[in-house]
Design brief:
Distance between the termini: 26 Å
Strand order of the largest sheet: 1-11-10-4-9-8-7
Radius of gyration: 23 Å
Number of domains: 2
CATH class of the largest domain: Alpha Beta
CATH superfamily of the largest domain: P-loop containing nucleotide triphosphate hydrolases
CATH architecture of the largest domain: 3-Layer(aba) Sandwich
Largest sheet: 7 strands, mixed
Number of helices: 11
Helix content: 25-40%
Number of strands: 15
Length: about 325
């Protein structure tokens, strides 16, 4: 399945669900002279999704986002947001969308609150209570009167998210929302995204931080050289190949391995050199049957879980990206 895909053969998800489509692209294409930045892209993002939009630098992610926000015009194809074509209905659609694209444009000489007020005036006015709410939501309530020039990169990022939330949008589009955040800030941002999704909002995230994508996103799309490689659920993307990770007492590991390899279902069993765990298939493909077999043989497992693939390795394989070229960031 996923592990055998090439970057030129898009995987169509078998887990597309019914529901309100909040953002949809159809044959979306953007060309700059001879360079094809986005190539015939079809996406569907549903209400309540936390949707991860992934790809190496230069894959076309930001170009796609800019077309979705009506900032640039597609060469061909279309983008619909909240059921309306963006280019034709920008005035009706964009007030229902909040966005943070690349580095937020902030007035450094003004306070955080005054930055919100400046944006609110463009939106036609926002009650002070709403400003209080979004400042508290992003963890800036105690620093709202400080000038933005005194903010750290992470605080500026938080303020950018607060600006995106000012108009209580139905769709939130965030480009690298964890940029500059410390570990605690990343956890808070993750919780915020989940809270918004639970309220029925849709969150569209472009990110390089694959560990965060793995933890927060429900669905993902991966681009490579402007083309869609795969669109699927996170669980489907990292799903293993029917094997299980078994933790045993080290003293019994080799004996258990030898026994399992004698079984018709366990001929490919092995020991993981890093974790020192037994990796094996199971009788009838069921973990419970494997557990029962080991217990009856006198090798009761300390732990037994389905094996999953590492998201970074799946990403690198699908996109053909060299992890040493600086195009992929992985945080632990």
């Amino acid at each position: 399945m996923t592990g055998t895909l090439s970057a030129t053969r898009p995987q169509q998800s078998t887990n597309r669900r019914s529901g309100n489509v909040v953002l949809q692209t159809q044959a979306l294409t953007k060309r700059y002279g001879e360079r094809l930045a986005v190539n015939n892209l079809d996406l569907a993002v549903y209400q309540g999704d936390i949707f991860g939009f992934l790809g190496p630098n230069g894959a076309g992610k930001t170009t796609t986002i800019r077309m979705a926000l009506g900032l640039i015009t597609p060469t061909s194809g279309s983008v619909e947001v909240l059921g309306q074509e963006v280019q034709q209905h920008r005035a009706a659609v964009l007030p229902r969308v909040g966005a943070l694209v690349e580095t937020p444009a902030l007035y450094l000489y003004m306070s955080g609150r005054d930055n919100l007020r400046a944006v609110a005036s463009v939106l036609g006015g926002v009650p002070e209570a709403r400003l209080d709410y979004v400042l508290d939501l992003v963890g800036l309530a105690g620093r709202d009167k400080d000038r933005v020039r005194t903010y750290s990169l992470g605080m500026k990022q938080r303020l950018g998210v607060a600006i995106a939330l000012l108009n209580d949008p139905d769709l939130l589009v965030l480009d690298e929302p964890a940029n500059g955040l410390d570990p605690a800030g990343i956890v808070e941002m993750r919780d915020l995204m989940r809270r918004l999704a639970a309220e029925g909002k849709t969150v569209f995230i472009s990110s390089h931080v694959l560990t965060e994508v793995r933890q927060i996103c429900t669905r993902v799309a991966i681009l490579a050289q402007g083309k869609l490689v795969t669109e699927t659920t996170i669980d489907e993307l990292v799903k293993g190949h029917g094997e299980f990770v078994v933790t045993l007492e080290p003293a019994y590991l080799n004996e258990a391995l030898a026994l399992v390899r004698q079984q018709p279902w366990g001929t490919r069993a092995r020991v993981d050199a890093v974790t020192n765990a037994l990796i094996t298939s199971a009788p009838q493909g069921h973990g419970r049957d494997l557990n029962l077999f080991l217990v009856q043989a006198g090798f009761a497992p300390d732990g037994l879980t389905p094996q999953t693939q590492d998201l970074e390795q799946v990403f690198l394989q699908l996109t053909g990206t060299d992890p040493k070229n600086g195009k992929v960031e992985k945080q632990s």
